[in-house]
Amino acid sequence: MALPTSSVITLHINGEKFTLPVDHRTTLLDALRERLDLTGTKKGCDQGQCGACTVLVDGRRTVACLQFAVAAEGREVTTIEGVADGERLHPVQQAFLDLDGYQCGYCTPGQICSAIGALQEHAAGWPSAATDDLRPESGPPPLTAEEIRERMSGNLCRCAAYASIVDAVAQAAGTRAIQPAGTQADSEEQAA
Amino acid sequence: MKEFTYQKAADVPGAVALLGADPDARFLAGGTNLVDLMKSGVERPARLVDVRELPLDRIETTADDGLRIGATVTNSDLAAHPEVRRRYPVLTQAVLAGASGQLRNMATVGGNLLQRTRCAYFTDLTKPCNKRDPGSGCPAIRGEHHNHAVLGASSHCVAVHPSDMAVALAALDGVVHYETADGPGEVPIGWLYLPVAETPHRETALPPGALITHLTLPPSPVAAHSRYRKVRERASYAFAIGSIAAALDVRDGVVHDARVAFGAVASRPWRARAAERILIGAQAVTETFGAAADAEMAAARPLAHNAYKVTLMRNLTVAVLGELAEEAGR
Ligand SMILES: Cc1cc2nc3c(=O)[nH]c(=O)nc-3n(C[C@H](O)[C@H](O)[C@H](O)COP(=O)(O)OP(=O)(O)OC[C@H]3O[C@@H](n4cnc5c(N)ncnc54)[C@H](O)[C@@H]3O)c2cc1C
Ligand code: SF4
Ligand code: FES
Ligand code: FES
């Protein structure tokens, strides 16, 4: 029985379905950029070392260069093209704009997708290597600059715009997390 | 990259059957190591069997009050799990010390254990390497080896195992469970990685075609008071140049129980049994911790450019055991 080395797959990207034939060797990153013209996701190292290709898969941040497109079939992929709500920018996008969280902008789509994932992980109470108190009942640790730097360490920036990236992530977190618990905005967030 | 076929396994027997005895077939989990090695040409499988959707993604308490961790649990979910954080904090810390948030979301427990060395010659197809190409030689011994082994190496290979997670599992006496066409089997983490000897290309004691299904951790009161510390060449997102997983139970100033394992010093996570023998029953003081490190590192055979690891491991041991002892005294 000779099995095929290519397949027709259906990818779910930013709420749309795309059906395309792929050689199994095609990474999700190359499928996005070369086949679907979704060039917002960038290729830096192609080896999992820089984070430029970060996309959300089933809501979690991942690197698109180390997964085969065929293995992403049936999963919900969100790229930088899909994070805004129509014309309304995602709070993380807005924060990067407000605080100049970039210079050349090449790493920025990956930084933004990574920050969106990182803030969700933090809100879910996941600790990081910068977290001292691991006890689950302690809840999410304070989102200090040290926490942000550690959680964002998978995204390199060749321009070293790190200081404003940390500020932007902190601001974006503030729009959601720094509200005192139980306020109107807070409960709306949770309902959404 | 060589062309390959791709199949998704739905259940454990199906995965084992799909892989079969084919030496050109590989299980694909998170892909963070395998896809990378396929790009560089180190791995050239003709068939991939995707195991990520197998029902092996749960963490459960066992009947003896230990923990059972499925092979496809992601590194992220393992680190964040309440029982792991509470009862085996060294494991959470070790996993969080590795890779990046994105990679930990993809990487699985099974894949983490079986990730290959980061020795630069191993991934460079223009260079000889006994691990990749048996009998071709080991250029690291006379070449670039500042992050290579000081313990348990041989004249055939001096590479280190890169996993942080496995170092914590070694300290915790974890057991690896697997499935083969002939039925299930298990191997303690201390026996999973084979001695280097003359066959560095033979890395694990798993039978050919074995699918790792889960790990078990025995109940371990001492583990509640445990810690992982990793030294690397930048603050985050880099492999270890030396690391320690330690657990300490101090009562009335005396070490009642201890577990110590070292990372990035050998071809496998290095359980520091000589150190543990010195520790247990001794006063929980700096001199004891230094003596324990010295006892373990007495077997070290550093190369020209990695003798710093002997000092590094001593300092790490004294520092981390000192902190654990101080916290126990509070
Ligand atoms: C840039 C970068 C930085 C990194 N930094 C670190 C670090 O600091 N510390 C660290 O510890 N790790 C680090 N890693 C390595 C990472 O942790 C591993 O690549 C990951 O854990 C592998 O898991 P996976 O599920 O992606 O495995 P895969 O890549 O899918 O598989 C790896 C191997 O395991 C086999 N396999 C997978 N699952 C099973 C199973 N259930 N049964 C049998 N065989 C199986 C595969 O066939 C393959 O041979 C880093 C990786 C990258 C790319
Ligand atoms: S140390 Fe091992 S992996 Fe590195 S070149 Fe030598 S044989 Fe190959
Ligand atoms: S391009 Fe994927 S991590 Fe660099
Ligand atoms: S803004 Fe230029 S690489 Fe980050």
CATH homologous superfamily designation of the domain at 225-328 in chain B: CO dehydrogenase flavoprotein, C-terminal domain
Annotated CATH homologous superfamily of the largest domain in chain A:
[2Fe-2S]-binding domain
How many beta-strand segments of chain A? 5
Q: Return the structural class of chain B.
A: alpha+beta
Structural class based on helices, strands and sheet pairing of chain A? alpha+beta
Low-confidence runs of chain B (pLDDT<50, min 5 residues)? none
Order of strands in the sheet with most strands of chain B: 4-5-8-6-7
CATH architecture of the largest domain in chain A: Orthogonal Bundle
Share of β-strand residues of chain B: 15-25%
Distance between the termini of chain B: 57 Å
Strand line-up of the largest beta sheet of chain A:
2-1-5-3-4
Radius of gyration of chain B, Cα only, in angstroms?
20 Å
Average pLDDT score of chain A: 92
Overall, the morphology of chain A is globular
| Averaged pLDDT of chain B | 98
Protein name (chain B): Xanthine dehydrogenase YagS FAD-binding subunit
Keywords (chain B): Oxidoreductase
GO molecular function, one term (chain B): xanthine dehydrogenase activity
Domain FAD-binding PCMH-type (chain B): 1-222
Relevant terms:
A: 192 residues; alpha+beta; DNA polymerase, domain 1; five-stranded mixed sheet; disordered C terminus; B: Uridine Diphospho-n-acetylenolpyruvylglucosamine Reductase, domain 2; Enolase-like, domain 1; five-stranded antiparallel sheet; four-stranded antiparallel sheet; 12 helices; 20% strand; globular; binds flavin-adenine dinucleotide; binds FE2/S2 (inorganic) cluster; Diverse_Substr_Oxidored (chain B); xanthine dehydrogenase activity (chain B); CO_DH_flav_C_dom_sf (chain B); oxidoreductase (chain B); EC 1.17.1.4 (chain B)
